[in-house]
């Protein structure tokens, strides 16, 4: 298993180009199953989860061609309705095949997902919503099997009991080809939902209300090919901003989308960062400035993103004073905490809150990555710590951060991948 060796203590300084968002690319790639016409996607990040989506497409009978580093043409027609355990277990977001397959073929067999081990992460909201659109379900041998009495879905009103990002995305894709009008109430409002709506509209879908908690979809009989560029990754952006900040450096994030990062930028400013924003770039300067502790409570968008919680924990760990971080979205999303404690952070967990007393320095140590964003926090901790840090099991990191070593090295950080 690959590891990172990081020698800490250098301020990160320079420019970093932000990649396309993993969480937008995954539903959009799987959403190409809704048409048999060619779709060209740009700004697709080169990530393991993205490759898993392409493998899923191939398994369903579609083909793809890489046009350049980040552009793909996807062609062909879905012929199989089965997403097997072998692929689904490596990526929880494979559940996003359920909506498009059920809408396009009238049935689907999707293995129950694996992926990041953060809490129970059920899929009941996906299933309940699709039932409202007329799908029937059975669960056997670890597979969710959907069917439709007349081979198609029918519009309906879905009230999501809890805000779910991939749940909303699955239902948007399913409703796009359902007969009649569908309304998703208490829909997720994340920027990746907005990007999916833009993509579906480019294919001829009639979607409105994305970005609010009520999305309305008028079903159409078929969708056509299109060209679409994936939105910038706000979590990758936030991760580099925190890394520069925690190391008392300065960074310019290029090709970013500042309006998708408002809660993160507000907290960085509260922590005493100097930040300047223009259309597609964010400049942060922390040279010669004290890091002030910030209290964080995660919430669905436009609240503070759970995917930035672990990175902010490192910032608080080296801030001057005490703070708390409360996680409200996922249980068991504090697996980075014991590892940060091994690096000298003063953290204590009480229920879904971590209390933090800032220390002047972290110390390098051997640590273990446990999920995607926890890995990001350990890399940042390694960059600011005194001495050498070895981060084991970085395959989690490869699921979500494009060219991470190259980008960190371009900012002056010392990081090496050790293959093994
Ligand atoms: C997505 C993101 C992930 C992010 C998360 C929250 C993708 C591929 N992943 O994950 O990076 O951390 O949103 O912003 O976009 N829930 C249920 N039943 C369900 C579905 C979800 O109870 O059927 C619960 C979950 O356990 C969790 C909460 O709802 O407590 C939110 O989860 P959800 O928004 O669905 O997360 P994902 O879409 O899996």
From TrEMBL:
Gene3D superfamilies: Enolpyruvate transferase domain
Catalysed reactions, as listed in the record: phosphoenolpyruvate + UDP-N-acetyl-alpha-D-glucosamine = UDP-N-acetyl-3-O-(1-carboxyvinyl)-alpha-D-glucosamine + phosphate
A GO MF label: UDP-N-acetylglucosamine 1-carboxyvinyltransferase activity
Keyword terms of this UniProt record: Cell cycle, Cell division, Cell shape, Cell wall biogenesis/degradation, Cytoplasm, Peptidoglycan synthesis, Pyruvate, Transferase
Active site: 116
Gene Ontology annotations for the cellular component aspect, listed alphabetically: cytoplasm
Pfam families: EPSP_synthase (PF00275)
Subcellular localization: Cytoplasm
Residue intervals of the Enolpyruvate transferase domain: 8-407
EC number: 2.5.1.7
Predominant place of localization: cytoplasm
InterPro entries found in the cross-reference section: Enolpyruvate_Tfrase_dom, Enolpyruvate_Tfrase_sf, MurA_subfamily, RNA3'P_cycl/enolpyr_Trfase_a/b, UDP_GlcNAc_COvinyl_MurA
Pathway(s) per entry: Cell wall biogenesis; peptidoglycan biosynthesis
Key word Cell division present: yes
Domain of life: Bacteria
2-(S-cysteinyl)pyruvic acid O-phosphothioketal: residues carrying this PTM: 116
Residues annotated as binding UDP-N-acetyl-alpha-D-glucosamine: 92, 121-125, 162-165, 307, 329
Record-listed phosphoenolpyruvate binding positions: 22-23
Record GO biological process: cell division; cell wall organization; peptidoglycan biosynthetic process; regulation of cell shape; UDP-N-acetylgalactosamine biosynthetic process
Similarity comment: family membership: Belongs to the EPSP synthase family. MurA subfamily.
Function: Cell wall formation. Adds enolpyruvyl to UDP-N-acetylglucosamine.
HAMAP family, per database record: MurA
Protein name: UDP-N-acetylglucosamine 1-carboxyvinyltransferase
């Amino acid at each position: 298993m690959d590891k990172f060796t990081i020698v800490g203590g250098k301020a990160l300084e320079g420019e970093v180009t932000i990649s396309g968002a993993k969480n937008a690319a995954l539903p959009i790639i799987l959403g190409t199953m809704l048409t048999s016409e060619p779709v060209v996607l740009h700004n697709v990040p080169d990530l393991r989860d993205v490759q898993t989506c392409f493998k899923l497409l191939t398994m369903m009978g579609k083909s793809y061609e890489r046009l350049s580093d980040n552009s793909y043409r996807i062609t062909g027609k879905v012929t199989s309705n089965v997403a097997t355990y072998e692929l689904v277990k490596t990526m929880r977001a494979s559940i996003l095949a359920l909506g498009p397959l059920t809408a396009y073929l009238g049935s689907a067999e999707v293995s129950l997902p694996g992926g990041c081990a953060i809490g129970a992460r059920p899929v009941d909201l996906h299933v309940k919503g699709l039932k409202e659109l007329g799908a029937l379900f059975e669960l056997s041998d670890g597979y969710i099997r959907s069917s439709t009495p007349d081979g198609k879905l029918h519009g309906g009103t879905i009230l999501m009991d809890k805000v779910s990002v991939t749940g909303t995305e699955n239902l948007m894709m399913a409703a796009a080809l359902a007969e009649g009008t569908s309304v998703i109430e208490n829909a997720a409002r994340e920027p990746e939902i907005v990007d999916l709506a833009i993509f579906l509209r480019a294919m001829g879908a009639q979607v409105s209300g994305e970005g609010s908690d009520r999305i309305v979809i008028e079903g159409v009989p078929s969708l056509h090919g299109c060209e679409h560029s994936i939105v910038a990754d706000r979590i990758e952006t936030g991760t580099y901003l925190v890394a520069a900040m925690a190391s008392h450096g300065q960074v310019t994030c290029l090709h970013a989308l500042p309006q998708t990062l408002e809660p993160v930028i507000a907290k960085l400013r509260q922590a005493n960062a100097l930040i300047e924003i223009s259309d597609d770039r964010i400049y942060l300067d922390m040279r010669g400035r004290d890091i002030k502790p910030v209290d964080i409570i995660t919430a669905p968008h436009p609240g503070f993103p759970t995917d930035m919680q672990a990175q902010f924990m490192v910032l608080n760990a080296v801030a001057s004073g005490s703070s708390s971080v409360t996680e409200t979205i996922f249980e068991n999303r504090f697996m980075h905490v014991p590892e940060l404690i091994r690096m000298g952070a003063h953290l204590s967990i009480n229920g879904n809150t971590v209390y933090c007393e800032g220390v002047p320095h972290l110390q390098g140590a051997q640590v273990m990555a446990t999920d995607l964003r926890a890995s990001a926090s350990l890399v940042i901790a390694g960059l600011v710590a005194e001495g050498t840090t070895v981060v084991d099991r970085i395959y989690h990191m490869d699921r979500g951060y494009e060219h991470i070593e190259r980008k960190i090295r371009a900012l002056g950080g010392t990081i090496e991948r050790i293959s093994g």
